[in-house]
């Protein structure tokens, strides 16, 4: 009985989580082709096919933009379907009102490379980053 309750609880959490992940991919409509997604309490069904998605985490600011295509291509070659990354807000707004989306922080370029490799994207928008990043990537101006 306890095991059944645990499975039901996981199922209730899994559906919204996966829905958010898939919807984030759809939000980048110019980069990804449209697809139909459903869930039958056993698996995700994408365009009529059951899928077990394999994910790899690539944190874009931890590599140079020149490295991104190779890292993403190697992930795909290894059987990955989804690239997962955080949005590192304290890198994108190092000071209040000062924005940075260039170089290592060019998230649009990173997303386009993921799309060019025909992979899904799980974009973890935060604000907290649980990846050994200073202050969890929270903006210092918020903490003060």
TrEMBL record:
Glycoside hydrolase 35 catalytic domain mapped to chain residues: 44-136
EC primary class: hydrolase
Enzyme Commission code(s) on record: 3.2.1.23
Transmembrane segments: 12-32
Highest taxon in the source lineage: Eukaryota
Keyword presence, Metal-binding: no
Keyword Transcription regulation: no
Family assignment from sequence similarity: Belongs to the glycosyl hydrolase 35 family.
PANTHER family xref list: BETA-GALACTOSIDASE RELATED
Name of the molecule in the record: beta-galactosidase
Organism: Rhizophora mucronata
């Amino acid at each position: 009985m306890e095991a059944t309750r645990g499975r039901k609880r996981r199922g209730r959490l899994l559906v919204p989580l996966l829905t958010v992940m898939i919807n984030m991919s759809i939000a980048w409509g110019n980069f990804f082709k449209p697809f139909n997604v459903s869930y039958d309490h056993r698996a995700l069904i994408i365009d009529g096919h059951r899928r077990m998605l394999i994910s790899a985490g690539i944190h874009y600011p931890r590599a140079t933009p020149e490295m991104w295509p190779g890292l993403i291509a190697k992930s795909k070659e290894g059987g990955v379907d989804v690239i997962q990354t955080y949005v590192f807000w304290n890198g994108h707004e190092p000071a209040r009102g000062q924005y940075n989306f260039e170089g290592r922080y060019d998230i649009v370029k990173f997303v386009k490379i993921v799309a060019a490799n025909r992979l899904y994207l799980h974009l973890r928008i935060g604000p907290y980053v649980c990846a050994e990043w200073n202050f969890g990537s929270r903006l210092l101006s918020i903490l003060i």
